[in-house]
Amino acid sequence: MSYLYCHILSRMSHSIPNHCPVPSILLCHVPCHPIPSHPIPSHPIPSCALHRARTHTQMRTEPPPSQPVPPVPPPRCTHGAGPLAGLTEDEDIQLMLRGSLLRKVKSRRAKERLYRLQEDGMTVWFERRFRRAPSKQIFSVMHIEGVRQGHQSEGLRKYGGSFPERHCFTIVFKGKRKNLDLAARGEEDAQHWVQGLTKLMARLQAMNQREKLDHWIHGILQRADKNKDNKMCFQEVKSMLRMINIDMNDIYAYKLFKECDHSGDERLEGRELEEFCRRLLRRPELEELFGHYSGEDCVLSAEELREFLRDQGEEATLRQARAIIHAHELNEKARQQDLMMLDGFMMYLLSAAGDILNQEHTKVHQDMSQPLCHYFISSSHNTYLTHNQIGGTSSTEAYVRALMTGCRCVELDCWEGADGEPVIYHGHTLTSKILFRDVIECIRDYAFKRSPYPVILSLENHCGLEQQATMARHMKAILGDMLLTQPLDRQDPDNLPSPEQLKGKVLVKGKKLPEPWGEPRGVTAAPDPEEEEEEEEKKEEEEEEEVEEEEEEEERLQERSSQRSLQEIQPLQAKDASQVAPELSAVVVYCQAVPFPGLAQALQHPRPCEMSSFSERKARRLIKEAGPAFVRYNARQLSRVYPLGLKMNSSNYNPQEMWNAGCQLVALNFQTPGYEMDLNAGRFLGNGCCGYVLKPPFLRSPHVEGPHCLVLHIRVITAQQLPKLNQEKRSSIVDPFVRVEIHGVPADCSKQQTGYRSNNAIQKTSVDSTAAERGTSRCSRGDAAGTVRPWCHLGRQRGSTPEFEQSWVHRTCSESGKDPGPPGLWELLLLRLALAPLSREVLSLQGWGEGTRHCLHK
């Protein structure tokens, strides 16, 4: 269960645009046969794997060495190759191209704007009705997560009451961008937009690599053609290069221009323009690899392609090789002769067939019939928050986003509300409140859209008996048969049920009354484990003698700030909140929250249906003082780990150390991006992103032998098209370097980095010039929950270093919600990774496909 990440850190505060529909790439070489421990040779590279990670950034290049260019130019790209292919006559699309007057519902005063789909089929613009201001791009169809019709968002439920429900719809964006709530003048217009956007999203998802590239080229050319004559002079070409952040020498740019100007009229048009763009994408390293198999004729026959595939560990037949050529070759004449040219070869390497993640792992492939405690479970802390836990906004949309990313355990912080209705918010703070009922309705609607496996509701209960009973009634009435209220028939009491047995079920984690209940009201249960743990942590904080000075000062400032801000807030916890209503106790079955009795007692008298929660500090202490015993505990019972309560900014902890101990419910603040959430996304990327990942055997049973050690060889080869972070300064360049980190058990954690490449020199390098940038690290076996992370650092060698991170795992669009500007070409970071077992056995990282692979941007 090891995963590959790509992160970009900048030494500048500007965020990197993510607008390009063509993916950025990370290429890595991973041999699929035993690797010698001596340094890896530079030439040739026959038994390698090419890995790509999309990071949607931009580049600066220098003239590469002269390379032979295939004589036949690629076919001309048209609209037919883009999102509108097959949809140009569609009634919904036609209306969107003409435009509609829609009201943006953001407050009581909804403003009407003209919204119109652009001819590229990718972007939607709006303009003021009376044209007092110029048109402005607002979003790309690429950035849309989904479209909901009716009052299906918090905004429309709050402000859309004056508009008929069938006139309203909500556009939900990926990332942290806020929803766009719209109201049409009529039901028909709303239907056209909902159906049209849905069709465009489906078309974009179905586009192959060739279509995405052709569409990207078409969009760039349309932007750069100032006089709209479908031809480009050299000055327009230079403008285009600046637009996509390519800082190219004028002499070399003109040389390339002339080579593509087959008509000799000092203008590029049609295929000449496309050939120019494609030459910008060429990499000498890929041409060298291609040439190793194709020879001097610069084309691969089906037999040569089969030889290449076999060197990658794939048992391909001639028929399969021909099928690959017909699927990915861009040139019609070459396809007819079963030949593959360099462009087609690149399209194949960047296709889904070459994804670094084994395609079998994009679906549920693990054994899902084992007890719940044998799985890592994607878990969220303070799920209702969209920002920090002092004054942030609480929202049902936060639950939607968590559930749609595969999260299977969400937290509900329940407090006494007005009119007998419990509310959810971060108690005794300035965070806004949402109704418990609305959250349960949201969970009903979205719990099983992303994954069919059980969802756990972690209740932090501060309500009195009456509102506890109301909570139970709401869950039963709204969730119906989804809510598990009785143990499963014929279930072994010594083991928890499996995710397979609990498919489609919602489980409640909360306090359970002892049997028999006794009095119907006023029954006192054990204190809430998490509350007790937080109190213990506060006491430990006061008694702690060895606290880092900065941490201590930060906590004092946060404490003073929160006390000043919250003086006026009245405590809303009911006086009888320490008691449990029988109605609420009745819906708690397999996740009975209890105070931690200690490892000795828990191991001597295991109770699988009981579970305890631990703060990150308490979990670390257990790992440090009794790590093996804690692992055995987690092999029999569920445990939940949550961030320290003193983290007012909702920051996260490193989840890897908790997974190393077998903790299942490692809860993170999903609203706080960072490397911790990237690690979490990587952990649950496999097994179909279903939110459940089977733990390694040695974390499920103490009788299984531990992991074997491997040696990981990494050689950084080249990089290109790295982002120009200062978009406003044309001369802005960076001094990049690459850092590779291993995250796992403490003995495996390691990081190494290359030297700086002044003035972005890394972008013009060949395989030879960077071959010396090698690193070797020891790491545990691939299923030991380790993580390999290449990071590309961008900035000035002597500049400041605010960090910007982007992972290929799941962040695919701009989170700022603003126009990200013109797209760039493919970013490329070429590495060679080799795993050599110390025992000389042939092992591979679990979940990684063997042979030629790339990292897809999910």
TrEMBL record:
Reactions it catalyzes: a 1,2-diacyl-sn-glycero-3-phospho-(1D-myo-inositol-4,5-bisphosphate) + H2O = 1D-myo-inositol 1,4,5-trisphosphate + a 1,2-diacyl-sn-glycerol + H(+)
InterPro entries tied to this protein: C2_domain_sf, EF-hand-dom_pair, EF_Hand_1_Ca_BS, EF_hand_dom, PH-like_dom_sf, PH_domain, PI-PLC_fam, PLC-delta3_EF-hand
UniProt-listed PROSITE patterns: EF_HAND_1, EF_HAND_2, PH_DOMAIN, PIPLC_X_DOMAIN, PIPLC_Y_DOMAIN
GO molecular function, one term: calcium ion binding
Keyword Kinase among UniProt keywords: no
Gene Ontology terms: cellular component: cleavage furrow; cytoplasm
Cell location: Cleavage furrow; Cytoplasm
Domain PH, chain residue ranges per copy: 94-202
Domain EF-hand: 212-247
UniProt feature, compositional bias: Acidic residues: 528-556
Primary site of residence: other
Keywords: Calcium, Cytoplasm, Hydrolase, Lipid degradation, Lipid metabolism, Metal-binding, Phosphoprotein, Repeat, Transducer
Keyword Translocase found: no
GO biological process, alphabetically ordered: intracellular signal transduction; lipid catabolic process
Pro residues composition bias: residue spans: 62-76
Assigned EC number: 3.1.4.11
Residue intervals of the PI-PLC Y-box domain: 584-700
Region (Disordered): 56-76, 489-570
Cofactor section: Ca(2+)
Role summary: Hydrolyzes the phosphatidylinositol 4,5-bisphosphate (PIP2) to generate 2 second messenger molecules diacylglycerol (DAG) and inositol 1,4,5-trisphosphate (IP3). DAG mediates the activation of protein kinase C (PKC), while IP3 releases Ca(2+) from intracellular stores. Essential for trophoblast and placental development. May participate in cytokinesis by hydrolyzing PIP2 at the cleavage furrow. Regulates neurite outgrowth through the inhibition of RhoA/Rho kinase signaling.
Protein name: Phosphoinositide phospholipase C
Organism the protein comes from: Cairina moschata
